[in-house]
Amino acid sequence: MISPAPPPPQSLLQPRKLGPLIPNEHGAWGMLTTAFLLGWWATPPFSWRPLYLVPAVVGIFLMRYPVGLYFKKRRVTRAMQISLTREKRWFWIYLVFTVLVALPLFWKLAWWWLWLFVGPSGLIFFLHLQSIQRRQEKSLTAEVTAMLGLALLVPAASYAGLLYLRWDLLSLMGLFVFYYLWRIITIRSIVKDPSRPRTDIKKMGKRELLYSAFFLLIVVGGAHLFYFINP
Predict the structure, then answer these.
(1) What's the alpha-carbon Rg for the chain, to the nearest Å?
(2) If both were cysteines, with which of 31, 91, 124, 132 could 149 make a disulfide (CB 3.0 to 4.6 Å apart)?
(3) In this prediction, what percent of the chain has a pLDDT beyond 90?
(4) Which of 72-80's residues contact partners 24+ apart within 8 Å by CB, and which partners?
(5) Is residue 82 part of a domain?
(6) CA 138, 144, 150, 151: dihedral to nearest 10 degrees?
(7) Which of 48, 38, 54 is nearest to 169 (CA)?
(8) Per-residue burial over 198-214, b = 16 or more CB atoms within 10 Å of its CB, e = otherwise
(9) Alpha carbon distance 228, 231 (integer Å)
């Protein structure tokens, strides 16, 4: 006798939402904002040029969300003949938006140096998608690769303001990586601890958004205090 196929996940049986696909990932939004602000802050004298990156950066950040969902769901949806129309539609919407806002960076500003950061970010994102395709989206590799892709925004935002690379930015980027690697490992240990009550991921994400703000304030305040004591 042929055993019946396992029931599909409840998320696939629920009615499909019609609104935009916006990542509800408070921790990821916190990392994105912190990386940009750290790079912008490390551009003395003050410059508005890093703000030109914001629309394209947000577009890329939004675009990778439907791509990740597509790779995550496509095995099950293909077997059940469920279309991923929403994911595809919003991918193309975000892609067109990103291209439109990124074109002036190359055409008007001639910021061809952006490929120095886009290239490694694309490679890291490819590794991240491989983890998702293998159904390992919650693995340490998937989370670390997502964080490393955002970490490259620190030197990119600084380069946009200075138009040259300061090597001390590597220490700032390293501090970013160290902090969020610690947070990733800490959260994973909390979630996997059987002695703890069930974790509310949304509340934890909102706390991480607050912790990101504290981290940014501590880094900026500590640096100013250091230069005040050692002018």
Answers:
(1) 20
(2) 124
(3) 49
(4) 72/132, 72/135, 72/137, 73/12, 75/135, 76/8, 76/9, 76/12, 77/12, 80/8, 80/12
(5) yes
(6) 160
(7) 38
(8) eeeeeeebeebbebbee
(9) 5
Q: Is 158 helix (H, G, I), strand (E, B) or coil?
A: helix
Tell me how far the alpha carbon of residue 210 is from its chain's centroid: 16
**What are φ and ψ of residue 210, in 5° steps?**
-70, -40
Residue given tokens 């293998």 in the structure block: 134
Q: Which amino acid is at 37?
A: L
Domain membership flag for residue 3:
no
Which structural domain range is residue 59 located in?
A: 20-229
The amino acid at 217: L
pTM for this structure?
0.84
Total length of the chain: 231
Q: Tell me, yes or no, whether 190 lies in a domain.
A: yes
> What's the structural domain count of the chain?
1
* C-alpha span between 111 and 99 (Å, rounded): 14
Q: What are phi and psi of 178, to 5 degrees?
A: -60, -45
Residue with tokens 């061809």: 112
User: What is the tens place of the pLDDT at every residue in 37-86?
Assistant: 999 998 877 889 999 999 999 999 999 999 888 888 776 666 555 677 88
Is the preceding omega at residue 45 within 30 degrees of 0, hence cis?
yes
Which 3 state secondary structure label does DSSP give 119? helix
